[in-house]
Amino acid sequence: VQLVESGGGLVQPGGSLSLSCAASGFTFSSYAMSWYRQTPGKERELVATVSSVGSSTSYADSVKGRFTISRDNAKNTVYLQMNSLKSGDTAVYYCRATSRRGGYWGQGTQVTVSS
Q1: Residues near 11 by beta carbon (within 8 Å), at least 6 away in sequence
Q2: How far apart are alpha carbons 38 and 93 in whole angstroms?
Protein backbone atom coordinates (compact mmCIF):
# COMPACT_ATOMS: atom_id res chain seq x y z
CA VAL A 1 0.00 0.00 0.00
CA GLN A 2 1.26 3.43 -0.91
CA LEU A 3 -0.09 6.95 -0.64
CA VAL A 4 2.30 9.47 -2.18
CA GLU A 5 1.60 13.17 -1.76
CA SER A 6 3.06 15.79 -4.07
CA GLY A 7 2.64 19.46 -4.91
CA GLY A 8 3.74 21.08 -1.69
CA GLY A 9 6.09 24.02 -1.59
CA LEU A 10 6.50 27.69 -0.76
CA VAL A 11 3.78 30.14 -1.76
CA GLN A 12 3.03 33.76 -0.90
CA PRO A 13 -0.04 34.72 1.11
CA GLY A 14 -3.06 34.93 -1.16
CA GLY A 15 -1.57 32.43 -3.56
CA SER A 16 -2.71 28.98 -4.63
CA LEU A 17 -1.30 25.50 -4.49
CA SER A 18 -2.61 22.13 -5.65
CA LEU A 19 -1.76 18.92 -3.82
CA SER A 20 -2.08 15.43 -5.23
CA CYS A 21 -2.06 12.04 -3.55
CA ALA A 22 -1.48 8.98 -5.71
CA ALA A 23 -2.69 5.69 -4.26
CA SER A 24 -1.69 2.12 -5.01
CA GLY A 25 -1.95 -1.30 -3.47
CA PHE A 26 -5.60 -1.19 -2.43
CA THR A 27 -9.05 -0.68 -3.95
CA PHE A 28 -9.01 3.10 -4.06
CA SER A 29 -12.68 3.47 -5.03
CA SER A 30 -13.76 1.68 -1.83
CA TYR A 31 -12.14 4.21 0.47
CA ALA A 32 -13.11 7.66 1.60
CA MET A 33 -10.15 10.00 1.18
CA SER A 34 -9.13 12.85 3.43
CA TRP A 35 -6.49 15.51 3.77
CA TYR A 36 -5.07 16.31 7.19
CA ARG A 37 -2.45 18.82 8.25
CA GLN A 38 -0.11 19.12 11.19
CA THR A 39 2.20 21.77 12.61
CA PRO A 40 4.91 21.14 15.21
CA GLY A 41 3.52 20.63 18.69
CA LYS A 42 -0.08 20.33 17.52
CA GLU A 43 -2.38 17.42 16.80
CA ARG A 44 -3.10 16.40 13.25
CA GLU A 45 -6.13 18.35 11.99
CA LEU A 46 -8.74 17.07 9.52
CA VAL A 47 -8.92 19.48 6.59
CA ALA A 48 -11.27 17.88 4.07
CA THR A 49 -12.91 14.57 3.17
CA VAL A 50 -14.41 13.18 -0.03
CA SER A 51 -16.58 10.07 -0.14
CA SER A 52 -15.52 6.92 -1.96
CA VAL A 53 -17.40 7.80 -5.13
CA GLY A 54 -16.86 11.53 -4.82
CA SER A 55 -20.49 12.37 -4.26
CA SER A 56 -20.02 14.21 -0.99
CA THR A 57 -17.37 16.41 0.57
CA SER A 58 -16.81 18.08 3.90
CA TYR A 59 -14.38 20.73 5.11
CA ALA A 60 -12.96 22.20 8.28
CA ASP A 61 -14.45 25.62 9.00
CA SER A 62 -11.00 27.17 8.67
CA VAL A 63 -10.72 26.22 4.98
CA LYS A 64 -14.33 26.37 3.76
CA GLY A 65 -14.65 28.46 0.63
CA ARG A 66 -10.89 28.37 0.00
CA PHE A 67 -10.00 24.68 -0.39
CA THR A 68 -11.57 22.09 -2.69
CA ILE A 69 -11.09 18.33 -2.39
CA SER A 70 -11.72 16.08 -5.37
CA ARG A 71 -10.82 12.62 -6.61
CA ASP A 72 -10.34 10.71 -9.83
CA ASN A 73 -11.01 7.02 -9.23
CA ALA A 74 -9.76 6.14 -12.71
CA LYS A 75 -6.36 7.58 -11.75
CA ASN A 76 -6.42 6.48 -8.08
CA THR A 77 -5.68 10.04 -7.09
CA VAL A 78 -7.13 12.57 -4.67
CA TYR A 79 -6.51 16.30 -4.96
CA LEU A 80 -6.63 19.35 -2.73
CA GLN A 81 -6.89 22.72 -4.45
CA MET A 82 -5.89 25.44 -2.02
CA ASN A 83 -6.69 29.08 -2.83
CA SER A 84 -6.34 32.33 -0.89
CA LEU A 85 -3.65 30.75 1.25
CA LYS A 86 -2.81 32.26 4.62
CA SER A 87 0.21 31.92 6.86
CA GLY A 88 -1.95 29.82 9.17
CA ASP A 89 -2.22 27.19 6.43
CA THR A 90 1.48 26.41 6.80
CA ALA A 91 1.78 22.75 7.78
CA VAL A 92 2.69 19.28 6.63
CA TYR A 93 -0.27 17.97 4.65
CA TYR A 94 -1.11 14.25 4.73
CA CYS A 95 -3.60 12.23 2.77
CA ARG A 96 -5.48 9.38 4.38
CA ALA A 97 -7.55 6.51 3.00
CA THR A 98 -10.30 5.26 5.30
CA SER A 99 -12.70 2.33 5.22
CA ARG A 100 -14.57 0.32 7.83
CA ARG A 101 -11.58 -2.00 7.99
CA GLY A 102 -9.08 0.72 8.79
CA GLY A 103 -6.94 3.17 6.93
CA TYR A 104 -3.63 4.26 5.50
CA TRP A 105 -1.51 7.38 5.73
CA GLY A 106 0.78 9.07 3.26
CA GLN A 107 4.19 10.42 4.20
CA GLY A 108 3.18 14.08 3.99
CA THR A 109 4.17 17.12 1.95
CA GLN A 110 5.23 20.49 3.34
CA VAL A 111 3.22 23.59 2.52
CA THR A 112 4.72 26.91 3.57
CA VAL A 113 2.83 30.17 3.15
CA SER A 114 5.18 33.10 3.59
CA SER A 115 6.21 36.33 1.95
Answers
A1: 17, 85, 111, 112, 113
A2: 7
The one-letter amino acid code at 107 reads: Q
Q: How far is CA 34 from CA 55, 68, 86, 114, in A?
A: 14, 11, 20, 25
Query: What is the rounded distance in angstroms from the CA atom of residue 35 to the CA atom of residue 49?
Result: 7
The helix (H) or strand (E) run that includes residue 87 is none
22 near 76, Cβ under 8 Å?
Answer: yes
Mean pLDDT of 17-39: 97
pLDDT in tens, 38-93: 999 999 999 999 999 989 999 999 999 999 999 999 999 999 999 999 999 999 99
Task: State the amino acid at position 114 in one-letter form.
Answer: S
